[in-house]
Amino acid sequence: MSGADKDAEHGEQDERTDGHAAPEPGQVVVPEPFLVLIAEDEEPIAEAIALLIADCGYTPLTASNGREALELARQRRPALVITDLMMPYMDGDELIAALRSDAVKAGVLPSPTILLSAAGLQRMRTSKADALLPKPFDLDDLEALLRRFLGPPPARP
Fold it and tell me: What is 30-149's CATH number?
């Protein structure tokens, strides 16, 4: 008997370390209005982006590759996705296409996406992302895009 079968036998729910269970098939996942998913395989860049997002009053969620990001997006439905173009397992364009396909199947609007890349604007222009941000980028430019797509952050208590 597998570990998952044992958990099911004992009525335990399969949860990720972030405390969110995977949705049931057909279940509609309600978007989290200030959640920003970051798909970036370069850890220092992901950390810098996450820090900026938190400093702006939004909630960052990071993934180190496109496949992990897609799984997290399906579980949490972020309000915005920031993705690198070149990543292992699934690149940024493939991630964007999968997110849009999921949204069409669910009959909802897709989360807007910001594509980051050092590949150059010519390569980035073929992307279906809502915004392009070439690397290296200025954090002020990223902050402006956060506010454009998410509006003002929630009031802090």
Answer: 3.40.50.2300
